[in-house]
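Standup notes, protein team

Yesterday: finished cleaning the Paenibacillus foliorum set.
Today: Extracellular solute-binding protein structure.
Blockers: none.

Input for Extracellular solute-binding protein:
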Amino acid sequence: MKMKKTVCLLVATTLTGTMVGCSSSPKEAAPSAAKTQNNQNPYLASGKPLKLTVHMGTKDSGVFKNDWPIFVKAAEMTNVSLEGTLPNTVSDFSETFSIVMASGKLPDIMQALSRDFLQFGQEGAFLSLNDLIDKNAPNLKKFLADNPDVRSAASDDKGRIWFIPFIADGEAEKGWFIRKDWLDKLGLKEPKTVDDLHNVLTAFVNKDPNGNNKKDEVGFFHRNTTIGIEGLMALWNGYPSYRAFDNKVVFGPLEKEYGVAMENMAKWYKEGLIDKEIFTRGSKARDVLLANNVGGLTHDFFASTGNYNEQLGSKIPGFGFDPMLPPADVNGKVKEPSKRDRAKNYGWGISHSNPDPVATIKYFDFWFSEEGRRMANFGIEGDTFTKVNGKPIFTDKVLKSDKAPIDVIRKTGAQSNFGFQQDYSFEEQWTPPLAKDGIDMYKEKKVYMDRYPILKFTMEEQKKIEKIFPKVDTYIAETRQQWILGAKPVDHAAFVKELEKLDVRRLVEINQAAYDRYVAEMKK
């Protein structure tokens, strides 16, 4: 059935929804309607073959390909096949989304950012999913009921669900890694405090731990400046963005601790303890500095950073880049500011012109069944994984490839950032034992700070944010770089005054109001 836009607008006023993951068995999770249609196939979403167009592509997984094996297999099981609408040459997915929206001719399924779903959904471009989920998607319905934080992230301020998000699994994200072999060579212990860390980095850059008789060692380095300095800032209780403490929202750059953090980081940079090219070296910094045996300390993702011992151990005698607990901050607290987000700010939804919304939501629901979730995470059984004691285990095709395991898996369409729930065991299987030990250490010590939640803003609030934030963000980034590089002295008071001129306090007020609504929603 073809839905008119006026009908879509009416449906949009009753939206409520999000995405769900599945832990129940296929038998328990299968829709009763599907069983009625076909007792032999609990996953059937349509009584006859149905082809739906899909706008889907991300930087990580690339453009959707019609022959991705997991989607071909899903078509056999659900009777719904997908046809991608993006050419393989697309690289700017934001631009292509804007072009498609401006055309008014939307594919049946759209992948987009949450802000786009919330905006264009209320304007009639997308269908609200609440009623569709309640009546036709038992896996999603259960998942959302069990995970109110995810439901909140996928819905607007009125509780209407506009899209099914990509849902990450696992708590651990980033941690500290240090050259253990350099510590041993210099007779130093793992740094436990900020002062310890300063002393260790000073020794790293001045006492030739790599033994080449050159002063070429780099103390702290990172491949992403903004993400990298978050770990350092936390040592002085400075934070780059929003945090909530005792239900009060604070914007890190406005707090005095931010100024203290900047003063100390500028000092460390001047002393040569921070990579001189921290703002310019780019994404290959980790590869280059470690391979050249000159990098000493970083704060980065566990799984990928933990691989360097295996990669470089045979090339650099004694090489040891090991995880360590965060040094205690200036107040003596050991904490890790990074923590993996669960519901990401993107996913897929149903456009207003979709010919069969019921079959589509059943298709979405399939990916939250046990079988669908397994395929979305691990690929195709017998090819990229086998079952061992009922658990999916990657084959040598994945684990012994000369390519990264995630790249091999994505060739099947798995882990391609559509609306499904990850299973952390997919990443755990190729996480080196050393990195696993680091993750376990962080978990055991309970060092993770609470994440700032994904908040929902009213249309009026969102417009205010879009007007104010870009100028605020640009000013902060430019000033932070000038401070750290020593191009201008740190003057936090003047910095705050300038931010206030840019109406930053209004941003904090908006976030506080949205945070209060979030807290109230979680209590329901």
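Follow-up from PR in the comments: The chain has two domains: 5-168+344-410, 174-338+424-524.
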